[in-house]
């Protein structure tokens, strides 16, 4: 008998941005739970430097989420999808005040999420599947150097809620996970400032930065039968940063 706190047999997950640090942790978690996983990187270079461990049931692929045709083609190569996780994302500190960079960040983080959701909707309707969008605590807590990133993640939260309401009629659940300060390549440079690093850690309840693996469990849970009544919700995983 399958537990509500496990994935059903034959579960197939697509993790867009799965070659990144948080995406790799999510992909590994799905594999550990017995799922077949397709994880993507933006290009071959992303796949070459991924932390993903080679293993059975894991497929790596490139996907440019800003390319309509590429996203449609990628979705068309799948026959069954039970979960779509959107965690492809970029930021560009200080440069986001340039309109071209601002639009690029929104195209990847927000419009890219919408593209993949739309492309995989028919497959997810067939399985009564789940979408998990990776938002950020910066959807609610703004930072001055990344206006596009903050705006895009705020958009991801509201997109999640809107699609949850619309696609409930298809049996598709749409939720989001909002990470706090997680140690990844995207913030490696900032973490070299030890005063900054300690200041962030001290504000959390656990007095530490999060690890990519800290996000993966919440994503997996939102795909399980145990969370069947959850849709349109945002689960913040920030070590208590916003609670203080």
Description:
The protein has helices at residues 21-32, 44-48, 68-76, 99-127, 147-167, 194-203, 213-221; strands at 12-16, 36-41, 58-62, 83-86, 130-134, 173-179, 234-237. The chain is an alpha/beta fold. Strands 3-2-1-4-5-6-7 form a 7-stranded parallel sheet, with helices on both faces. It is globular and about 50 Å long. The N and C termini lie far apart (42 Å). The model has no long low-confidence stretch (mean pLDDT 97).
Q: Helix amount, in percent? A: 25-40%
Low-confidence stretches: none
Q: Going across the major beta sheet, what is the strand order?
A: 3-2-1-4-5-6-7
Strand content: 5-15%
Helical segment count: 7
Secondary-structure element order, N to C: EHEHEHEHEHEHHE
Q: Count every beta strand, where a strand is a DSSP E run of 2 or more residues.
A: 7
Radius of gyration: 17 Å
Q: Major β-sheet, in short?
A: 7 strands, parallel
Report the structural category. alpha/beta
The outline comes out as globular
What is the residue-mean pLDDT, rounded to a whole number? 97
In whole angstroms, the N-to-C terminal distance is 42 Å
Task: Supply the key terms.
single chain; 244 residues; alpha/beta; 15% strand
Write the layout of secondary structure elements.
Blueprint: E1 12-16, H1 21-32, E2 36-41, H2 44-48, E3 58-62, H3 68-76, E4 83-86, H4 99-127, E5 130-134, H5 147-167, E6 173-179, H6 194-203, H7 213-221, E7 234-237
């Amino acid at each position: 008998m399958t537990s509500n706190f496990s994935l059903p047999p034959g579960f197939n997950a697509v993790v867009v941005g799965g070659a990144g640090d948080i995406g790799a942790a999510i992909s590994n978690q799905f594999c550990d739970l017995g799922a077949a996983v397709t994880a993507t990187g933006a290009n071959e270079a992303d796949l070459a430097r991924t932390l993903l461990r080679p293993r059975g049931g894991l497929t790596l692929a490139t996907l440019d989420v800003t390319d309509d045709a590429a996203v449609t083609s990628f979705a068309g190569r799948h026959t069954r999808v039970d979960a779509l996780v959107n965690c492809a994302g970029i930021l560009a500190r200080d440069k986001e005040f340039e309109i071209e960079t601002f639009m690029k960040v929104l195209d990847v983080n927000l419009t890219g999420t919408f593209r993949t959701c739309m492309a995989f909707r028919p497959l997810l309707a067939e399985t009564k599947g789940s979408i998990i969008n990776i938002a950020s605590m910066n959807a609610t807590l703004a930072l001055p150097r990344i206006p596009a990133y903050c705006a895009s993640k705020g958009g991801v939260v509201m997109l999640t809620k809107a699609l949850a309401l619309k696609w409930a009629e298809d049996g598709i659940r749409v939720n989001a996970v909002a990470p706090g300060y997680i140690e990844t390549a995207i913030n490696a440079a900032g973490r070299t400032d030890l005063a900054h690093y300690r200041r962030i850690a001290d504000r959390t309840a656990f007095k530490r930065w999060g690890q990519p693996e800290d996000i993966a469990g919440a994503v997996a849970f939102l795909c399980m039968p145990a969370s069947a009544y959850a849709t349109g919700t945002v689960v913040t995983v920030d070590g208590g940063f916003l609670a203080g």
